[in-house]
Amino acid sequence: MFRIGNLKLPHKKHTADMKDARISTPNTVVLPMSQYIGAPALPIVKVGQQVCVGTKVAEADGKVSAAIHSPVSGIVKKIGDFLLANGKSCQAITIESDGKMTLDPGITPPVVNSAEDLCQAIRESGLVGLGGAGFPTANKLENAINKKIDMIIVNGAECEPYITIDNRTMIDGAEYVARGVKLIEKFIPGPQQIVIAIEENKPDAIAKLTALLKDDPKVRIEVLPSIYPQGAEKILIYNLTGRVVPEGKLPSDVGCVMFNVTSVAFMAHYLETGIPFVWKTVTVDGSAVKSPKNVTAPIGTSLRDILTFADADFNNLGKVLYGGPMMGIAAYNLDDPIYKNTSAVIALNKADSLPKTQYPCIHCGKCIQNCPVGLNPTAFVKAMNISDKNDRAAMLEKASVLSCIDCGCCSYVCPSRRPLVENNKLAKADLRKTLASKNN
After folding, report:
1. Residue-wise pLDDT tens digits, 352-389
2. pTM, 2 dp
3. Domains of the chain with CATH codes
4. Read out DSSP for 197-262?
């Protein structure tokens, strides 16, 4: 059996048995134009304009981009600059809700009679990958149609601690997952098999989907060990097939296309209702959260509203993360919104948020031994200390820094508590900047 990844993390899946709870309509939502991998969307509304739930407020800008729709009914109050949690800037649309949640009268289920129709419908829905990265789903569908693909992988691994939204989708929305799989099977006939990959710590999800799809010879449920980072795209492809996705290439280049399981369920729901991607379910948990739960909220709802709904201890609040503790990034403002690709909001108390003392590298090699893609994070540290940008770039390229998947394994196992994954991210950004300047 192929296997990459050997970290056994504490699961902390406190919300695994909890159905999602819907939050009250927020007073305002903030919709950044960059919520996914690809070009930011372009606003197509004006300040003062009335919008409804599902009204398109921004259109995709180019092939790799995604439309954005209003998740509430109300008035566009502001269109202006916005600083994202990752430090980048984009425009954002602020909408003041009227509390009515009136559905846009133009919403109707799309008519889908071909693979091209399916791609266009999903592009109009604004759906992006819900596993974390947020690659526009329509582009993945196009790759599945236009490239030589022999396997579709539906990713239900959900290997990060705390997060349980995919698990709940596979239990509470199992019928939609099954319908989504059937849609893919119907309109993308090329792949010889559809594999639904689920970690073994989700027995209820495994049982539900097995029962629904047991009579389909083209579909199989693959039960995987609960190891981290099992759900990472390139890791999961290797563990299922033994195929290596080369640096700079896509899974479709090795005959696979992967969809997150909740993305697949949404596709079926969208074709049934025509309601675009305007609501997101996130796991809200952490040591500063008194009532952990899975919360379904309009995209653009503030972290403050989300945490209030989960009874967070604001007096003892330390760090708040977008995403899980391994790959999540820290939020700097509780008035910032949840995004299309937000999987969790993890709030830690002050004690758990204190910076830990760092020590010099002791050259133990644990970061190398535990890197799922075989990289040497200490080489990136050395490279980043080189003053000449071209020499620095040459060393980073030689060490294959762009193959880093930001899984956080290196930082997790480091006995000296070095901020290795942060350095990896800075190194990748530095190399991309240097390469871009050379190409211009």
Report:
1. 999 889 999 999 999 999 999 999 999 999 999 999 99
2. 0.95
3. 115-273 (3.40.50.11540), 366-439 (no CATH)
4. EEETT-HHHHHHHHHHHTT-TTEEEEEE---BTTTSHHHHHHHHH-----TT--GGGGTEEEEEHH
